[in-house]
Amino acid sequence: MPKLHLEPSIVTLNAAISAAATWQSALGLVSDGRPRGLNPDEVSFAAAVSACEKGLEWRRALSLFREMSSRSLPPSLFAANAAISAFEKVERWRGALSLLATLQRMGLQPDLVSLNSAASACEKGSRWQGALMLLVGRDSQLQRLALVRDLVAYNVALLACMRGLLWRLSLDLLSQMMRNGPEPTVISFSPALEACERSRQALQTVRLLDTLQRRVLS
């Protein structure tokens, strides 16, 4: 742009960060903006956090999110969700839950993306109880925030049930999906089938397989 006698703006910088091919490029653009008089804003940092999340750089994602506060930038739920997702991808459930708890202290209300990512981090980190506490039951975080489970939330909860061999709860969740939506997929049925099979519930396993043939595979 300088070669064309054009002055970059914060909008240009943010677009470049969002389009960066790697997290290293995104961080480089955040740093390069300062000598040009462009102070990265909350959009800049959110885009950089997202780039780090995609690169599995959870430490850098968290550091950038914290830096927003030190720069007195407005907290960003998008950046927070990207940081929680970074923890989820490397199975660090403690970090995901800690950041989730921090959101409300910052004046941010978690959304379904926040809860799904944190719950998935718990499930992947063999903390299936934590996933269910976030997504299932009257006292769950999801219920307290008056959010409605989507397909991702149901599938994460079903995986948690599989880990805990909670076959009855698996069947209940599938029944809820078939009654009220979203429509369960093969990915939804698979953990429920495994929970029933590992719990030696042969009859329930056969019934589930029959339902799967009729509703999904036919």
From TrEMBL:
Record-linked InterPro entries: PPR_rpt, TPR-like_helical_dom_sf
Pfam family, one: PPR
PPR repeats: 41-75, 150-184
Coiled coil regions, renumbered to chain: none
Domain of life: Eukaryota
Keywords assigned by UniProt, alphabetized: Repeat
Keyword match Electron transport: no
Keyword Repeat: yes
Protein's UniProt name: Pentatricopeptide repeat-containing protein
Organism of this sequence: Polarella glacialis
